[in-house]
Structures are given as C-alpha cells and as structure tokens.
C-alpha cells in the first residue's frame, strides 16, 4: 500500500524594501523549544484581534537563500533520485518575493540554481554513466501553456493531456538533456527572457504568468532491465493582485484576472481536497490541472508561502496563510516511477502472441519501495491463440506449405507420430511432392508461421490504434460535456434558496410573500434561460457573487457558519478581487476552525449623503444598471453594503424586500429588463 505524505509548508517573510514603511505589520515569533514558529497578523478590521498561524518552517526577514535551500529543499534531492516526483511551489501576493526565492540573483541564487547544482552533485556521487538529466520549462499565461524553451513568437499553445496511468502532462513540451551546470545556465538564462514579465505599481518586474521548470533524472539499470525516473517541478506562481494597488492598465487587468482566477481555482481544489469532496475541480484551470499530481496526487510537495511585510499587505498575508493552513492537510500518495525496459520478446513460431502489454510510462510503486529497485513480477505476455488452435490444418490461417514430403527413403525421416504432410490437394504423399529435409521443413514452417504472426500483430496494432483514437475522442467529448455541465452548475443557485430569507420575515404582509414566491419562480425560470455568454460576462459574475453573499449572510445570521462559509467562497469565485469578501471568508473560517461564535467585526460608520433638501440621505443598496461608467464599481459597493449595512439587521420590510428583489433581478436580469433600484432610507431610521 502506498504511504501518504502531507504537503510541507514553509513561510518566508521578505525584508522591507527601501521605499516601504517599517510598520511591523507582520511578526514572526519563535517558541523557546523546538516547537513551531508563529506568524502573527492583526485582523485588518480589528487590530486588537491577532491571528496566529503555526508554521514549522518559518523564515524571517534575515533568512538567506541558503537557509531555505539547506533546511527544506536539499532533503528532497534524494527523494527525486529515488524515482519520485517532487513539486516545490512558491505562493504569495505580488512582490512578496516568490521569484527571488525560486530564481534569485547572481549574487543570491535561489532554489532553482541550487537544485540544479545539487542534482549534478548527486549524479557525481552515484558515479554512474547511465544517469541522465533533462530540463523543460513552461509558463501558463492567461490559462494557456507555452514552451519557454522555444522561440516565444512561434511558441504554440500546448495541450494538456493525461497518459494511460492517469498522469497529467503537457504535450509536445521540449525536454533538453543537460550534461553540466554550464549547459543548464545557458538554456535557462535564454528561456527566462521568454517569460511574461511586466511592470506594475507594486513590482517593476512582476511575473505575469505561472512558470514551471522541471528537471528530470532518468536512471537506467541495464542489468535489472529497469529504469527509474525522478522529477522535480519548481513552480514560481504569479502573485494574486489587488488592482487598486497594482494600478494595472487594461492589458495588465486581463492578465491579472487570469492570474486571480487560476489562484482562486487553486484554493477551491485545496478546499475540495480537505472536504474529501467527490469531485475536485482540477479541470477548472490549466494551473490546477498541471499541479494535479502535486495536490492530492502522487508526488511529494513543498509549498513556500512568500509574505510581504507591512500593513499594506496584511490582507494578502492573511489570504496566503489561510491557503497554507488549508494546504497542509492535503495528502499525497507518492509513488516510484519505474519502467521495465526489457526488449520485446520475439514471437515463437509455434505460438501466436498478443502484442506485448503496453509499457506504462511509469510502473508506479509505493514509496516504501523506494530504497532499491524492487522487482515486481514481470509482466506476463498473454498467449492468444494457443498452439492447439494452429494444429488443426483446416482452422489455421497459416498458409499450407505445399509440396512438402518427408517420406520416400529420405534419411532422418520424421517419426511416424508426426502427421503426414499434406499436399496442395490435401492428400498425403501426393506425387508432386518435393523431397525436403526435416531442417528445411522446419524452416519453411517457421517462416510461414512468422509471417502469419506478423500479419496478426499488425492487425491487432491497427485495431488498438483505432480503439485508442476512439477513446481519446470520447474522452474529449466527455470532457467538453463535463465542462459545460460544470459551468451550468456553477451558475445555478440551490433550489429554494430564497426560502430561508422568506422565513425570517414572517411579519411581511401577504402581498410581499406572494411577490417573493413569484421572484423565486422567476429566478428559477431565468436561471434555466440564462445564456452562457451573458452569465460569464464580468457584470453577471459580479451579480451572481452578490446573490451568494446575500444567502451567506442569511445563513451566518442563523449561526449556520459552515454553509455560510461555503456560500461566501462561492461568491469569491465570482468576485475574486473583493477585499471585504476575502476578509469575511477569513473571519468565518477562523470561527469555524476554532469552533467559536462568529461575531461580525464592527461596521464602519456609513457616510451620510445629504440630499439637496438636506432632510434625508440616499443609500444605494444595490443599484442594478448598465451601460454607464459607474457600473464597474457598483458590485463591489453592493457587496460592501451587504456585508456592512445588513449587520444592522434592518427591520424595514421595504428595504429588505428591495434587496431581495434586487438579488433576484440581478441573477435573472435580461438586457431588456435592466432597471435601477434605489432605496431611500429616511434620516433616523
Ligand atoms: N528575501 C529577499 N531579500 C531581498 N530582496 C527581496 C527578497 N525577496 C524579495 N525581494 C525583492 O522584492 C522585490 C519583489 O520580489 P519578487 O519579484 O521576487 O516578487 P514576486 O512575488 O515574484 O512578485 P510577482 O508575483 O509580481 O512576480 C524584488 O525587488 C526582489 O528583489
């Protein structure tokens, strides 16, 4: 049985940069004994509340590249050489030091150059000529994979596929053998220029893509006729971005949206794994598809969480640590990638053999078997068409050997037990028979049988190829169907979602109830009718996000925190940039994990907007409009109001009614039916 291995978590706080204020926003404290270190972050919404995260491998601002490599990375080199895949990924907000940690500089080389050096050192220790190293390097830019080892202009989008043993790989990715560190440096420095990097307000050289460098070691044992393949994937993820801080232009915004979406799916995958969900949404982004093996798969994982100091990044730090806490519970089942490299057995003339079993790219074995090349049972070659089936001349498709005779006073006759050879007419001992020696007869039979075997093998291969193509086609169709289904599911709210809200307001008059029921029906009808393109438009996403927030809020008020958390997370999928929402997720998650009561943090006082008359203020609770410039900001504001404003528990049925109508309308809205909803709250209400 394969052993399980939890992903190891390390956290690294980068030093303050010259232009940053030293406000001690994040603290790392170490216990006296060998216990875990703590990362302490004040709640951005209530600084008296401190979140403390226990992390065993904590690196503070003074830590060096060497510290992190020696303590957490070097031990993994042996694991790679035992034939296991290792994945190290750097995660964190933009400008938190991921690229610095993974790549580093000439003066302070990071994980990548150090790993390469260690891999060559290990190869030298083994002193074997049959150890080969190869490198590949790719990036995921706007949810598409590109080869960084080929010319950027001509680099095509690469497809992601799955092999016979369920391993996901990027098809057609270049892999270059490397014989020395110098060779690697030449390849890597050239390839790094191809990576998508751009300037933002927070980072002059911000990674606009997720990059994955893979070093593969193949060790061939020709005596045992086995080969082991170990791999180390070094992943520098793009950082999550708050567009308000990065000040991105439209191009950067599009990149940023892709980055945030893929990171959000990464969070969902980790969450689903923790929940033991039956469906893990790996397929929702290329990043998670490619990291599938590292997250709940067959590789050994190390997650390096990079943190930026200062209160400016406090919210991002909380998000990163929250992700770390969730990830450390993810279990992998590492296996040894071992292959049988024996040449195919030649078919014996007397037996027809099935095509040799397809050599799986890796014969996976549990990690316990790592020490030494354990020899599993050799794959048996199934015998199809036993000798007996060939014996009967009438049934055999082996061409009859004509004019063969062994009788007639020839020396070295066959024993009588051997059936008499048959003439073309089917008569034994026909007059036209040519006298042949036993050896010649055997040779002729062998040739004929071999020809037949070859023909059958070819036939089988063609059928197998055809089947494979059919399966691939079916898989593709199935995948597309699943994708469409998932999209539909994602857009669909659970049936009867408005019911709890209705129940809460029994004081609503009959008319109001009737209206809500009507809205619910309208919503359900509309959901079915929603056009995919409309649903996926940014506006629709934001509106759907707001609907989820409403529901989450209702559940959290009921004390149903787990459901509320799930709904808030769902909302996060649609509005990944919403900071207030992220804060709410963290707070509720904290309450759920610690079994404490959730007390919403005190709301900020709402600014009163004076009308011209000065006697009343107007609060836009959720303006539903389109076609005007303000709309872009509206959904954020809407959620903000829901999070902040609703905690007042307004008993005003008019306001409540308008909010729910707005949500239902937001979800079911069609271009023709767009309308504005404004709620006026009289002064003093
Ligand atoms: N440990 C460190 N020591 C010194 N400087 C650091 C350290 N970590 C990061 N930096 C500096 O901080 C800045 C941002 O780091 P880096 O580019 O590695 O961030 P990043 O997380 O990769 O950002 P992005 O996601 O935008 O690519 C760089 O100028 C880098 O040199």
Automatic annotation (TrEMBL):
One function term, GO molecular function aspect? microtubule motor activity
TPR repeats span which residues? 545-578
InterPro entries named in the record: Kinesin-like_fam, Kinesin_motor_CS, Kinesin_motor_dom, Kinesin_motor_dom_sf, P-loop_NTPase, TPR-like_helical_dom_sf, TPR_rpt
Q: Which residues form a coiled coil?
A: 451-536
Gene Ontology CC = microtubule; microtubule associated complex
Record-annotated residues binding ATP? 92-99
Alphabetized SUPFAM superfamilies for the sequence: P-loop containing nucleoside triphosphate hydrolases (SSF52540), TPR-like (SSF48452)
| UniProt region (Disordered), positions on chain | 404-432
Highest taxon of the source? Eukaryota
Protein family per UniProt: Belongs to the TRAFAC class myosin-kinesin ATPase superfamily. Kinesin family.
Fetch the PROSITE patterns from UniProt: KINESIN_MOTOR_1, KINESIN_MOTOR_2, TPR
Q: State one Pfam family annotation.
A: Kinesin
Keyword vocabulary terms for this entry: ATP-binding, Coiled coil, Microtubule, Motor protein, Nucleotide-binding, TPR repeat
Residues annotated as domain Kinesin motor? 6-330
- Please report the name of this protein according to its UniProt entry: Kinesin-like protein
According to its UniProt entry, one GO biological process term is:
microtubule-based movement
Gene3D superfamilies per the UniProt record, alphabetical: Kinesin motor domain
């Amino acid at each position: 049985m394969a052993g399980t291995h939890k992903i190891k978590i390390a956290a690294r706080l980068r030093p303050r940069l010259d232009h940053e204020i030293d406000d001690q926003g994040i603290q790392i404290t170490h216990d006296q004994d060998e216990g875990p270190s703590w990362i302490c972050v004040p709640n951005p919404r209530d600084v008296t509340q401190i979140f403390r995260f226990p992390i065993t491998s904590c690196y503070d601002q003074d830590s060096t590249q060497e510290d992190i490599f020696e303590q957490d990375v070097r031990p993994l080199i042996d694991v790679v050489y035992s034939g296991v895949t290792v994945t190290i990924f750097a995660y964190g907000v933009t400008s938190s030091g991921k690229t610095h940690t993974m790549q580093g500089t000439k003066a302070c080389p990071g994980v990548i150059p150090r790993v390469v050096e260690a891999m060559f050192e290990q190869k030298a220790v083994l002193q074997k000529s049959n150890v080969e190293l190869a490198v590949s390097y790719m990036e995921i830019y706007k949810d598409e994979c590109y080869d960084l080892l080929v010319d950027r202009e001509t680099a095509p989008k690469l497809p992601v596929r799955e092999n016979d043993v369920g391993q996901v790989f990027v098809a057609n990715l270049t892999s270059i053998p490397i014989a020395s560190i110098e060779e690697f440096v030449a390849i890597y420095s050239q390839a790094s220029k191809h990576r998508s990097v751009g300037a933002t307000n927070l980072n002059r050289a911000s990674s606009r893509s997720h990059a994955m460098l893979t070093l593969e070691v193949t060790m061939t044992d020709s005596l045992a006729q086995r080969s082991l393949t170990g791999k180390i994937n070094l992943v520098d993820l793009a950082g999550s971005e708050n567009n308000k801080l990065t000040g991105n232009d439209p191009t950067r915004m599009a990149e940023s949206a892709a980055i945030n979406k893929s990171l959000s799916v990464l969070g969902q995958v980790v969450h689903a794994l923790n929940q033991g969900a039956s469906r893990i949404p790996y397929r929702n982004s290329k990043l998670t598809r490619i990291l599938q093996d590292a997250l709940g798969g067959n590789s050994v994982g190390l997650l390096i969480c990079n943190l930026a100091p200062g209160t400016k990044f406090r919210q991002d730090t909380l998000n990163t640590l929250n992700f770390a806490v969730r990830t450390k519970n993810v279990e992998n089942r590492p296996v040894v990638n071992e292959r049988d490299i024996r040449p195919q057995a030649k078919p014996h003339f007397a037996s027809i053999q099935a095509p040799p079993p397809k050599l799986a790219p890796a014969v996976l074995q549990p990690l316990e078997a790592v020490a030494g090349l354990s020899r599993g049972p050799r794959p048996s070659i199934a015998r199809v068409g036993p000798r007996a089936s060939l014996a009967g001349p009438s049934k055999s498709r082996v061409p009859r050997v004509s004019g063969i005779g062994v009788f007639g006073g020839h020396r070295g006759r066959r024993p009588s037990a051997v059936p008499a050879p048959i003439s073309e007419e089917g008569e034994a001992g026909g007059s036209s028979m040519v006298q042949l020696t036993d050896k010649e007869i055997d040779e002729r039979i062998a040739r004929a049988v071999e020809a037949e075997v070859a023909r059958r093998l070819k036939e089988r291969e063609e059928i197998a190829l055809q089947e494979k193509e059919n399966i691939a086609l079916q898989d593709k169709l199935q995948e597309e169907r699943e994708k469409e289904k998932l999209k539909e599911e994602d857009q669909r709210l659970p049936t009867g979602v408005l019911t709890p809200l209705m129940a809460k307001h029994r004081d609503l008059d009959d008319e109001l109830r009737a209206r809500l029921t009507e809205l619910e029906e309208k919503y359900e009808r509309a959901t079915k009718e929603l056009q995919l393109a409309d649903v996926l438009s940014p506006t629709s996403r934001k509106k759907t996000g707001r609907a989820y927030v409403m529901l989450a809020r209702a559940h959290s008020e009921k004390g149903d925190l787990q459901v509320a958390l799930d709904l808030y997370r769902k909302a996060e999928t649609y509005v990944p940039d919403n900071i207030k929402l992220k804060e709410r997720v963290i707070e509720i998650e904290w309450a759920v994990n610690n079994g404490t009561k959730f007390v919403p943090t005190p709301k900020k006082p709402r600014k009163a907007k004076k009308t011209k008359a000065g006697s009343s203020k107007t609060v836009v609770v959720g303006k539903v409009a389109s076609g005007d410039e303000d709309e872009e900001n509206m959904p954020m504001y809407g959620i903000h109001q829901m999070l902040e404003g609703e905690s007042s528990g307004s008993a005003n049925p008019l306001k409540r009614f308008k909010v729910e109508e707005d949500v239902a309308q937001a979800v079911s809205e069609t271009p023709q039916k767009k309308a504005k909803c404004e709620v006026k709250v009289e002064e003093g209400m």
